[in-house]
Amino acid sequence: MASVDDEAALAVFQFHESRGGVRGLVEAGVTTVPPLFLRPTTPVSSAARSMVVPSIDLSLPRSHAVALVGAASRSCGIFQVTNHGVPAGTVDAALSTVRAFNEQPFEARSPFYSASPIGAITYATIPIPRPKDGQPATAPLMSWRDSLIVRFDYPADPDLRSLPGACRGPLLEYHRSLTSLGKGIAGLLSEGLGVGAEQLGQVEGCLMQCHYHPPCPEPERVMGSREHTDGDLFTVLAQDGVGGLQVRLDDGEWVDVAPVAGALLVNIGDVLKVVSNDEYKSVEHRVMIKSAQESRVSIALFFNPAKHDESDFFGPIPELVTAEKPAQYRSLTWPEMLNNRIDLGHAKPSSLDRFKAI
Ligand SMILES: O=C(O)CCC(=O)C(=O)O
Ligand SMILES: [Fe+2]
């Protein structure tokens, strides 16, 4: 007899075979959410509270911006930046091209659908990883979103021929512009720790995930993204005005992060939490689907040190290790970090416990 896991794997396989993604379900006129997407736990209503994320004007004098970036990264691990130098047209064009690609008819977009990468590109509904320890799953099998993912640290240069033609120009221009912003933010984050601007080294926006969340007939029964921390140094996120992103506060409460026109969000990831010796917080976040009518588009660009191969170690910056605050983590390799996330099925703040030095 087929086990529950086998049945789930078959259902996911069959869903991929349809090549339509979540958008395909909406096109087919579903009025109830298929089991693959149902949250196993009781529906969680949207957060009542809205959080005003610290906002940092990057045209401020540098010492001022550094102090604000340091304070926000210590207190909540997320902030938004304005006057960031990325033209509004570049952000809008990237968000619009992702929306337009996903809203094409099935025949135009399904040839790109592939659950595993083709070259450096994936376009699919990405299943939510399951924990390997047999713990009961607390998330649906799949998120209510279709993602177009580009790896820029692919061993060969990203094979951009697999990127849908109309998206190529706007997404590469967005990546180019964000790369220079990311370098600036790395410097501010580094100085915010009280160490030189170069301490985080050369960073690169190595992975770009463009998410399209179709409207959902039963929004409260699905998740746009289950709760997680990012596994990078930091992430820069562009989102449209629909909303749905939430962060978990220290008291455990989830609050909405309201979109702010023109601002880009920056959140700290697990690697920077380790490198900063726990000075900075890696913020837990998730995406709720807000609407039965509107689709939501977001683009997350994940920044890491340019050198992050199998043989590269990272750990707390030596200047941040003192007698009062010894190293909180041993140094670790990128595969260790990655495998740990795979084992756990998803990452939460405690997922770094395995690397604790004390
Ligand atoms: O869609 C969003 O707002 C967040 C996406 C996200 O958290 C991620 O891709 O890691
Ligand atoms: Fe994330």
From TrEMBL:
Residues 202-305 form the Fe2OG dioxygenase domain. The keyword Iron applies. It holds the Pfam family 2OG-FeII_Oxy. It comes from the Eukaryota. SUPFAM superfamilies: Clavaminate synthase-like (SSF51197). Keywords: Iron, Metal-binding, Oxidoreductase. InterPro entries: DIOX_N, IPNS-like_FE2OG_OXY, IPNS-like_sf, Oxoglu/Fe-dep_dioxygenase_dom. GO terms for molecular function: dioxygenase activity; metal ion binding. Belongs to the iron/ascorbate-dependent oxidoreductase family. This is 1-aminocyclopropane-1-carboxylate oxidase-like protein 1. It comes from Dichanthelium oligosanthes.
